[in-house]
């Protein structure tokens, strides 16, 4: 069960966020009404990772792998079914809204859709200023100055602060979302596919902005995306998710230079490289089949059905994420 | 160049909006030959989808209007043949695949009904013939247990499988030309790799000409023979795929290539975004539409329309500047 005692485990400032064995199961039912069988979609099924101070941790995976649900569960936007979320030495897993509220100053989020995540009836100045009001930051008279400073920091002309979100393009709206997250001077920001909805030429603008801010403000970022090239570009360390679990975790350099899990290898080889000469030379691992439904229970490795190097023993017991700096959950790969 | 199958000359498409007339397509010309894949790359609003809707006679009128040009297919101008003749071509000789396989399939009809409708209409199949043919097509696009699954509704298929159904439908009548509008954008990378392989394989077997519309330079590099780069309703550059990536001549193409991080290059280098926003097509200024965002712009670029320049037989671009004279430090440099 979830334990909220203040145990000073790993309370060191080096590892402000320590997620252990996080689980989010959504109940399902099937069959006719008189004969219902209850199961669960195991959206997140035992995820553990740590985020260091000033680090960008990338979470990658395909749709439905549980990467967004993981972020939401860490922030208690969805209540986790099990596991622990240690934030600065305190287990915050499953805290209710009043208890979470003060923590939302430390832990912020930037959302994928720059259209639905901004209130259309508020001006940009109000959107960015509201978090300061809620947390009673700055003297009321100084707040407008602070909004101007933040808009300037994210590359928006402060003259626009009385405009409404619909007057801005997607990239500009995403900048507004970044300014809003920064308004409370957070320590860690979850960025959930922050550039997926943007055009190629605009994506790079927002990626550079996040990169700059992270360094300038010594923020920790958790960067969630399906675009492996962008995740690699921003992240110090990366966790690869498949069916609700992290199957491989390594520094961004190691993961791309020496991927060990067969899923990571397939994923990397599937990304087309914008260079026809390179594309012709590459050998692509085309996986058969599709990501199975997460409501199935697996005795063994959840990737076994699509794995090109599967052996009968892989289906007997689930592989554990093993290794120290380069962790991998595969019986046939060695962690490091 | 080989004999072209479909040839578009100086196409203009306009839309009436509350803010004035939008020139969505502003003088576009291209041709495709049998067995060839032409890529059209551009960002949202560049007019790439509208161009191909116009080819198929699918521009909603009003508010849309074909303001000029010709679309020659088998000696006829598709813009002038009338709806009956167009219906005999569309879905029969020219097939199409759209981005979102959920909204392009009718949710109330089984896959069998939708697949057989095409061949019964265009090829005069009986119900039984059409059903046999449909099962065969589903098998070809890699749907397991096609004979059993053909009675299913679209929602019973996953996204990747639905896109396979769309491809099966588009190819049912063995079209000469296949127009694919962002066919893999809604799919995960491992599924994208499967679908792109499938399209290439079917093209090899049937000699279909493909027009591939996408914003993804990686997909272009993977499947295309020739590429047209579209910006603000115009084709600003057109070249064989290798030449376009190795020696881009239009500053917009250069900007696009530089702004995407590549998996095969060392990480950590800063991205080079294209500054600013795409233009507002309701109030086009004079001169080159890209000039306000262009690193190479000269005063003349804002005063006159750029000339059409060529480099060799098949490479053309619209620009005043010879970018080879200006140092391009970040030229494409394929690392292994």
Summarize the amount of helix of chain A as a percent range. 25-40%
What does the overall shape of chain A look like? globular
N/C terminus separation of chain B: 32 Å
Query: If you compute it from the alpha carbons, what radius of gyration of chain A comes out, rounded to the nearest whole angstrom?
Result: 21 Å
Secondary-structure-derived class of chain B: alpha/beta
In terms of DSSP E residues, the strand content of chain A is: 15-25%
The number of helices of chain B is: 11
Biggest sheet: strand arrangement of chain B = 6-7-8-3-9-10-12-11
Helix-strand category of chain A: alpha/beta
Structure characterization notes:
The complex is a heterodimer of chains A (336) and B (336). With 336 residues, chain A is an alpha/beta fold. In chain A, α3 packs across α4 and α5 packs parallel to α6. The longest helix of chain A is centred in the middle third of the chain and has 18 residues. Chain A contains 10 helices and 11 strands. Chain A has a domain of 79 residues. Chain A has a 7-stranded mixed sheet with strand order 6-7-8-3-9-10-11, with helices on both faces. The two termini of chain B are 32 Å apart. The C terminus of chain B is likely disordered. In chain B, the strands form 2 sheets. Chain B has an 8-stranded mixed sheet with strand order 6-7-8-3-9-10-12-11, with helices on both faces. A 4-stranded antiparallel sheet of chain B has the order 2-1-4-5. In chain B, α4 packs across α5 and α5 crosses α7. Chain B is globular. With 336 residues, chain B is α/β, with parallel strands linked by helices. Chains A and B meet through α6, α7, α8, α9 and α10 of A and α8, α9, α10 and α11 of B.
Topology readout:
The complex is a heterodimer of chains A (about 325) and B (about 325).
Chain A: E1 17-30, E2 37-51, E3 56-60, H1 67-74, E4 82-87, E5 90-91, H2 97-100, E6 107-110, H3 124-134, H4 140-153, H5 170-182, E7 188-192, H6 200-217, E8 220-225, H7 228-234, E9 237-242, E10 245-251, H8 252-257, H9 262-270, H10 276-281, E11 327-328
Parallel strand pairs in A: 3-8, 3-9, 6-7, 7-8
Antiparallel strand pairs in A: 1-2, 1-4, 4-5, 9-10, 10-11
Helix pairs in contact in A: 3-4, 3-5, 4-5, 5-6
Chain B: E1 6-17, E2 20-32, E3 37-41, H1 48-55, E4 64-73, E5 76-77, H2 83-89, E6 94-97, H3 101-104, H4 111-123, H5 127-140, H6 146-149, H7 159-171, E7 177-181, H8 189-206, E8 209-214, H9 217-223, E9 226-231, E10 234-240, H10 241-246, H11 251-259, E11 308-311, E12 315-318
Helix pairs in contact in B: 4-5, 5-7, 7-8
């Amino acid at each position: 069960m979830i334990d909220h005692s203040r145990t000073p485990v790993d309370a060191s400032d080096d590892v402000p966020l320590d997620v252990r064995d996080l689980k989010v199961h959504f109940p399902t039912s099937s069959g006719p009404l008189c004969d219902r069988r209850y199961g669960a979609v195991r959206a997140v099924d035992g995820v553990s990772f740590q985020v260091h101070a000033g680090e960008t941790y990338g979470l990658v995976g395909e749709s439905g792998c549980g990467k967004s649900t993981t972020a939401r569960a860490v922030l208690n936007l969805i209540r986790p079914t099990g596991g622990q979320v240690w934030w600065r030495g305190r287990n915050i897993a499953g805290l209710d809204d009043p208890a979470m509220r003060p923590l939302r100053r430390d832990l912020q989020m930037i959302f994928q859709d720059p259209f639905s995540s901004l209130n259309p009836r508020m001006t940009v100045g109000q959107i960015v200023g509201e978090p300061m009001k809620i947390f009673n930051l700055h003297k009321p008279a100084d707040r407008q100055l602070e909004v101007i400073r933040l808009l300037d920091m994210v590359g928006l002309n402060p003259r626009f602060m009385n405009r409404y979100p619909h007057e801005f393009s997607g990239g500009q709206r995403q900048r507004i979302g970044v300014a809003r997250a920064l308004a409370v001077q957070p320590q860690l920001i979850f960025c959930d596919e922050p550039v997926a909805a943007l055009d190629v030429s605009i994506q790079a603008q927002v990626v550079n902005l996040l990169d700059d801010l992270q360094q300038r403000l010594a923020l920790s970022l958790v960067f969630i995306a399906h675009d492996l090239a962008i995740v690699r570009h921003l992240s110090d360390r990366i966790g690869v998710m498949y069916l609700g679990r992290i199957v491989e975790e390594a520094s961004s350099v190691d993961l791309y230079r020496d991927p060990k899990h067969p899923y990571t290898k397939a994923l990397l080889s599937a990304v087309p490289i914008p260079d026809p000469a390179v594309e012709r030379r590459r050998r692509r691992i085309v996986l058969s089949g599709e990501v199975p439904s997460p409501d199935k229970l697996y005795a063994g490795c959840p990737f076994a059905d699509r794995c090109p190097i599967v052996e009968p023993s892989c289906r007997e017991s689930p592989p554990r994420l093993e290794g120290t700096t380069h962790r991998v959950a595969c019986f046939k790969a060695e962690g490091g | 160049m080989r004999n072209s199958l479909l040839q578009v000359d100086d196409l203009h498409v306009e839309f009436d909006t509350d803010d004035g007339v939008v020139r969505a397509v502003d003088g576009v010309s291209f041709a495709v030959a049998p067995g060839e894949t032409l890529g059209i790359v551009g960002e949202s609003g560049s007019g790439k989808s509208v161009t191909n809707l116009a080819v198929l006679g699918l521009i909603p009128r009003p508010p849309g209007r074909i303001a000029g040009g010709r679309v020659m297919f088998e000696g006829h101008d598709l813009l002038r043949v009338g709806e009956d003749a167009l219906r005999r071509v569309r879905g029969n000789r020219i097939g199409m695949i759209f981005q979102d396989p959920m909204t392009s399939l009718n949710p109330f009809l089984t896959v069998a009904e939708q697949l057989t409708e095409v061949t019964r209409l265009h090829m005069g199949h009986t119900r039984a013939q059409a059903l046999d043919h449909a099962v065969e097509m589903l098998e070809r696009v890699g749907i397991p247990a096609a004979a059993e699954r053909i009675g299913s509704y679209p929602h019973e298929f996953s996204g990747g499988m639905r896109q396979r159904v769309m491809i099966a439908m588009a190819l049912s009548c063995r079209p000469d030309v296949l127009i694919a509008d962002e066919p893999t954008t809604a799919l995960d990378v491992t599924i994208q790799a499967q679908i792109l392989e499938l399209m290439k394989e079917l093209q090899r077997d049937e000699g279909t000409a493909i027009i591939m519309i996408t914003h993804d330079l990686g997909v272009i590099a993977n499947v295309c023979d020739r590429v047209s780069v579209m910006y603000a309703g115009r084709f600003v550059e057109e070249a064989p795929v290798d030449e376009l990536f190795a020696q881009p001549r239009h500053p917009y193409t250069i900007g696009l290539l530089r702004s995407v991080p590549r998996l095969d290059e060392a990480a950590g280098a800063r991205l080079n975004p294209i500054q600013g926003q795409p233009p507002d097509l309701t109030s086009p200024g004079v001169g080159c539409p890209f000039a306000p965002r262009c690193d190479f712009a000269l005063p003349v670029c804002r005063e006159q329309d750029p000339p059409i320049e060529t480099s060799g037989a098949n490479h053309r671009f619209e620009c005043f500047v010879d970018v080879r004279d200006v140092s391009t430090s970040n030229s494409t440099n394929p690392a292994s």
